[in-house]
Amino acid sequence: MTTRHQAYRIAVAASVGLALELLRESYLPPLAPILAVQLLVGSSRPPAARQAFAFVLSVAVVSLGMFWITSSPHSFKGLYYLKITFVYLWIYFLCFNNKTAPIGALALTVAVIVSAVVPASEVTAAGIVAELSCAAVSAVLVAHLAYLVVPSRRIADSLPARPDAGSDGPSPDIFRRSVVATAILVPLQALLTFDDLAPIVALLTTATMLRLADSKAASRYGWTFATGNAIGAIVASANVMLLAMHDEPTVLLTSVAAVSLLFSALLVRGASWTAILLPGLIAYLTLFGLSLSPLPVADDVAVLDRVLTIVAASIYALAGLLLLGRWIAPRMPEART
Fold first, then answer.
1. pLDDT for 183-196, tens place per residue?
2. CA 291, CA 232: separation in Å to the nearest integer?
3. Distance, CA of 71 to chain centre
4. Is 47 within 8 Å of 143 (Cβ atoms)?
5. Structure pTM?
6. pLDDT at position 24, please?
7. How far out from the chain centre does Cα 43 lie?
8. Fewest CB atoms within 10 Å of the CB: 111, 120, 263, 311?
9. 48: which DSSP letter?
10. Would you state the pLDDT for residue 22?
11. How does pLDDT run across 58-112, given as a tens digit for each residue?
């Protein structure tokens, strides 16, 4: 079946992408495999040259902008959050526009990871742009490699419809949706402290939930996102403990390949499994990949604390959508009988 081919491409992209980033000693090892997975999901062909150029350019621009915002001194903390508010507004505007949604999704991933990780590092502006641009190039190459390893059998070769896929029908006001998503995400980023891995995944999970097609879709799939991220956190913690007992490259590569194949084998079971396990795979790559990063980010936090942080962020996002979601889609006048 064609969905199995797409799922195994994701497994190839996740395992090979993380291995390549570790070989080149990347500051952010999980970024390239995460971007490669996002390029593959819902796509029937690898990115063309024009798409790849736009993708790499957007990653470089977003990373430079977020680095400048997070590293530049501010007279008061509110100025920092005002700047990232405008950045998230622009990114969500791209996400909610059907023509720019793929670029917006990738830019959102980059913005969240950079804003969470850069404050704990001493990387220069040129270093972060070069690092993330290399990660973007690696993601494109890994996506093409995945299609070489697992070629297409049919034109329509993709996973079941994703919960975060854009709707083909008429959409609510893009500006309103961007404002609501930003109004929920920025306070969460202000509350979280990024001295641990779990808040990064929690922020990334919330950002992904908020770019769903509408507030009803986000609410409907909110619990599946929370469940998937909890599963990813548990698997990543187990992998970290395994690597602590057997710190060998073969164990590292074998465990990553085995976990990626396990997630991929379950992805083909249907849309309900995809809604849980695709976020779980992203959470696993983020948590386990950052635990191998040279950046000073802690990786010895209890599994329960990680899971609770991720679930609490999901509940916060759902509550925000319930409160502000009515402003996105105003109530239609009732028909008179």
1. 888 888 888 766 55
2. 14
3. 22
4. yes
5. 0.76
6. 83
7. 17
8. 120
9. P
10. 85
11. 888 888 888 777 777 666 677 888 888 998 998 998 888 888 887 888 888 888 8
